[in-house]
Design a protein that fits this description.
Strand order of the largest sheet: 1-2
Strand content: 15-25%
Order of helices and strands: HHHHEEHEEHEEEEH
Number of strands: 8
Helix content: 40-55%
Number of domains: 2
Length: 170
């Protein structure tokens, strides 16, 4: 998960005041959070790795809360639990043996060749391995955030300005 935050003393003062006026945040920031979440979700859909399509179909987003508790999130559903590993990579590690996903005939052929270990699908081919060699992260979520960040920051700046105007004492 990548979390984006903004911090400054002026913002802290503004947030303290806005606790008493949550409707101002909802009026100016909720639409921006919804738009930012939609942009991040769309960007993630376009650059996420596609092997079976399971990961892309599991992308979820939500906007929750009210007032200063307003938050948005974008991520993969539980069907694609492995996407965190694809994002950050994996170190070399032993492969736990367990049920063999090959057919009985395929398992018998592997045993006849002397293959010992777990059957794992790699690039469309069944291979038997004891140690997974690991792999580097793809960092596509990070790339998506970086691609969208400038536009999202600009939208939040505009919402901040409108909020400040709404809070002016006249």
């Amino acid at each position: 998960m990548i979390k984006i935050g903004v911090a400054s003393p002026d913002l802290d003062k503004q947030l303290a005041l806005l606790k008493y006026y949550p409707e101002i945040i909802d009026q100016y920031f909720r639409p921006v959070v919804k738009t930012a979440v939609a942009l991040l979700k769309g960007g993630l859909r376009s650059i996420a790795p596609r092997d079976t399509g399971k990961a892309v179909s599991s992308i979820r987003s939500s906007v929750k809360g009210k007032g200063v508790s307003l938050s948005g999130s974008v991520g993969f559903g539980s069907k694609a639990w492995y996407m965190n590993i694809v994002e950050h990579g994996a170190k070399a590690h032993p492969v736990n043996t367990g049920s063999d996903v090959r057919s009985r005939r395929g398992a018998a052929k592997a045993a006849a060749r002397g293959d010992v270990g777990q059957a794992v699908m790699v690039n469309g081919q069944w291979v038997t391995m004891r140690m997974h060699p690991g792999f580097g992260g793809r960092f596509f979520v990070k790339q998506n955030v970086e691609n969208q960040q400038a536009g999202i920051v600009q939208m939040f700046r505009a919402a901040n300005e409108m909020t400040l105007k709404a809070m002016e004492v006249k």
